[in-house]
């Protein structure tokens, strides 16, 4: 965005507070840095091109720590860069505490890339609310909104902002503000938030996984005080998204231990995209065939090369949890880049051919090898349908492992239950069924036991906690395909429960 010539007068323009600290302080270096992270996001998060979000959640840490995660969300805006002319920004307060939401009195915000005007007409729409006040002091030194400006200035053509620092208002108070400013396709909602703070690497992953699940399920009640510094704004956005029937996609979740920090005390980061289902459906349907083929070919090649190593990771982390009462630490650098790439998987344990545990991820939000390790432990010890796996069971050597790697899930468009049933592909489709906060997932392998589509769907409803004949206009169904590998297919003589992987 071009410099508009406005001088840096604190009465008119809020100057940068963290330029040269959280991000580069010169226009040339800053532009190059932002474009670098956006180019990396293009390679790592290709699904973003299929989504045109109405709202995003993105982190606000220094770029070296959270730049890639932020870019994973911002990348999705490029398809409508010319259409977005107003950004409603909500970020937590770090410096001067407030109870409600605070606007500035300034007319613009400045970054090394120029000045961005404040939309005073939009701000006037919410000034009558009791929870909204003008309070410059909380804006002056806070970084939660400022760090987003260079990304917005690089991607969008010309835009104004409604900058709001959020204290501790009720979610309904935030929702009220968002609804008044919601607008049409010209308006983007941006919520700024980091995730867990100063936890160990393993603890942060567990906490941030809970946060991811809460946001994906639009469950604002599941967001606790220690999960996200921007939780008050997030809760308000979730309420609005739920009321408006928006779909949530996780773009990326990681922490400072994955980027540029030590792993003893890390900060978590995540990006989420909130979009209207019809637009998402249209984009996905047009790309389904090519996406599935690309996923299938690439994933099968990865499993052919590294599948045995993944199986050993799953076995070793289960053994480690039994012997050391702690999950195995994953050293990503020791694994090939294909396994470091984000992937979603289910890990299934069978005992003498019968199910012994199954846990997985629907969204690809962390490295595949990490997802395998975490889900293997959960399948062994946290599947509530079964007792925890014991050392004796491993010693008997009759536990097998199956890893299913999931494609990105595709929303399905249907007018009735009969319409849905005719679209389902037996033997090929895995399904995710969502009704409000209730969700059920069936992997494609379930078709072996339930080969008839109507029965498949009815049992999926039961798994989601619904009645078999349940139907509503708010019901959402997503399909995905998988590629898998089983310990039963690895070379004879490989003792999965004793052999150590050369990759670890």
Concise account of the structure shown:
By secondary structure, this protein is α+β, with helices and mostly antiparallel strands. The chain is 35% helix and 22% strand.
Tally of DSSP helical segments: 14
Average pLDDT across residues? 88
CATH class of the largest domain: Alpha Beta
Provide the gyration radius in Å: 24 Å
Number of strands: 20
End-to-end separation in angstroms reads 47 Å
> What is the count of structural domains?
3
Main sheet characteristics: 9 strands, mixed
- Could you say which structural class the secondary elements and strand pairing correspond to? alpha+beta
Q: What percent strand?
A: 15-25%
Task: Report on this structure.
The protein is an alpha+beta fold and 504 residues long. The protein folds into three domains: 13-264, Protocatechuate 4,5-dioxygenase, Chain B, CATH 3.40.830; 289-407 and 483-489, Glycoprotein, Type 4 Pilin (2-Layer Sandwich); 409-480, Dna Ligase, domain 1 (2-Layer Sandwich). The chain is built from 14 helices and 20 strands. Strands 2, 3, 4, 7, 8, 9, 10, 11 and 12 form a nine-stranded mixed beta sheet that branches. Strands 14-13-15-20 form a four-stranded antiparallel beta sheet, with helices on one face.
